[in-house]
Specification:
The protein is α+β, with helices and mostly antiparallel strands. It has three domains: 2-59; 90-166, no CATH class; 170-204, no CATH class. Helix content is 22%, strand content 21%. Strands 3-4-5 form a three-stranded mixed beta sheet, with no helix packed on it. Strand 1 and strand 2 (54-59) form a beta hairpin.
């Protein structure tokens, strides 16, 4: 794949240096319309020169596409540049004998992918006041707009909430040496019947949960 797009970009660059630019453009068009790699799905491409403020080449650039996973690279870069090294996880207020708190959507609390951070839980549990979890500020849905309908089963599409715990996931890990299935958080063990054989792992419980780790 990288080699394929390298060839395309080199051909596009030649548009500005080759006398037969029209022929080169036809060659690039032929690649996009006839190459086997691009024949079974929709393809769009645009290469822009920010210095000269000129589009060097485009193919189906005016079509609408569901953003591909490579947009995550831009999201990550924007977050690294824009966000500080830490973010608030919750807001709280104390009134008389009660501690009120509002979650701010931090997905790291008790999430094993982030070292099981428990600062929020420790702060709340140390309080000797009555605890009230306020959720009236969360006006979003648990699913995001544009989420693919067939991705709801997977861990990278965990449901949203104002105060996620464990990443809003049930984490599974299978140890083949002793045919043991470990659930995290482990208090979920009491709610599920686990049947393990050489072909499959079947879990039965009152609710549908998602697997983020499954080593076999």
């Amino acid at each position: 794949m990288p080699k394929f797009f390298t060839v395309i970009i080199l051909l596009i660059i030649s548009l500005n240096s080759c006398i037969s630019a029209r022929k080169t453009r036809r060659s690039i068009d032929h690649i996009f319309t006839n190459h086997q790699l691009l024949s079974d799905h929709h393809t769009g491409f645009s290469l822009y020169d920010p210095v000269r403020k000129k589009i060097l080449y485009e193919y189906n650039a005016n079509h609408f596409f569901t953003p591909a996973s490579n947009t995550k690279i831009i999201t990550l870069f924007s977050a690294l540049v824009t966000l500080p090294d830490s973010l608030p996880s919750l807001k709280y207020a104390m009134k008389n004998d009660t501690l009120y708190f509002w979650g701010l959507g931090d997905p790291t609390t008790l999430n094993p992918g982030f070292g099981d951070q428990d600062d929020n839980i420790s702060f709340i549990s140390r309080s000797e006041k009555n605890i009230v979890w306020c959720k009236d500020h969360f006006r979003d849905g648990r699913f995001g707009e544009g989420w693919a309908w067939d991705d709801y089963l997977y861990s990278y599409q965990a449901e949203k909430s104002s105060f996620p715990l464990f990443g809003n996931l049930l984490h599974l890990q299978y140890h083949p040496a002793n045919s043991e299935l470990i659930l995290y958080p482990n208090f979920c063990d009491v709610n599920f019947k686990k049947e393990i054989n050489q072909h499959a792992i079947e879990m039965r419980g009152p609710i549908a949960l998602k697997s983020s780790r499954h080593n076999r």
